[in-house]
Amino acid sequence: MKLIALRVRGFAGRLERGLTSSQHTWQERRGLLLEIEDELGHIGLGEASPLPRYSPDDVAGCRGALESLGARWPQQWPEDPALALAALRRLTPGMAETPAARCAVETALLDLLGHRLGMPLWHVLAQAAGLPVVPARVSVAVLIHASDGEPMDRELGAVVAQGYGSVKLKVGGMPLERDQRRIARVLDRLGGHVRLRLDANRAWPPCVARDALAGLADPRIEYVEEPVAQGRWADLGPTPVLLAADETLQGPSPEVPLAQLQSWGVGVIVVKPMALGLLASLSLALQARSMGMAVVVSHLLDGPVGWAASISLALALGADGPAHGLAPHAGLTAWPASRPLAAQGPELVATAEPGLGLDHTDSLRAGS
To answer: Which pTM value belongs to this model?
Structure first.
């Protein structure tokens, strides 16, 4: 496979509905669309859209990393998926400080390879990693945006009616008593068939986290994500609810080894390709699964290309495990309309479409 062009284009757009965590609020998204073209006219797409005040990198740094990569980009590339992954790992080790750019490169090259081979990206990833190449149907979890009251009740009613089996609620950043009332209200509205996962985004001091977690011994609660600040996991002690690590895993290397996290009650890891890189996310997921930990693939309010890459990773990992955090989200509204064909309501359904499997790809490229 001969590569003849590498192009980088910027995008910016406002979100129709902002997103608020315990730490920040986001009203717009900016990023880069990477295009790689081969000698046959196939084009692979990648996205670099670091999240301000969250990601370790930024758009300017990602643009510099992508443009400097263009000067040393190999013209010839292997068409075997396993060899392509190995070549990518040799090409991108210097991009540890710009994981969103690394994600863009990995996605674009593998998307291009998928188009060239007539193979979906999930198939490319699974085959290269030695995973079973089996078309999967996997569930997704949906984030509740409304903070409380009747707006939250209406949103919960809508997601239950749509058939979602797992709901995520942001907590922290407010008095614990209010969070406890919100959690009780959500559980009451969800009934007995929908599970709830909580994300504190490191907002609770250890003393507050211990009190909060002690009151969450409800089988409908899947897990609590990042309950305490960086470096404070050991202060929690035993908890009646499963814990999940997300930000703790990010950076050039995880803050804490997986085995240590597991000893502290972490049973789930959340991997975000835009924050880690696509191949680093795959490697971390495989390592966690080998240890008996569950894996959730999620996003950073990515555009449709980043979303499709995360969906491809989730499908490559197969049907085992909890719902992935890949329901349609607010970040998509900043981009021209384009949608992974695998995203079908509360499920991801593997398709045979080559590469990322996006609809309206021409509109996306023209609008970037």
So the answer is: 0.94
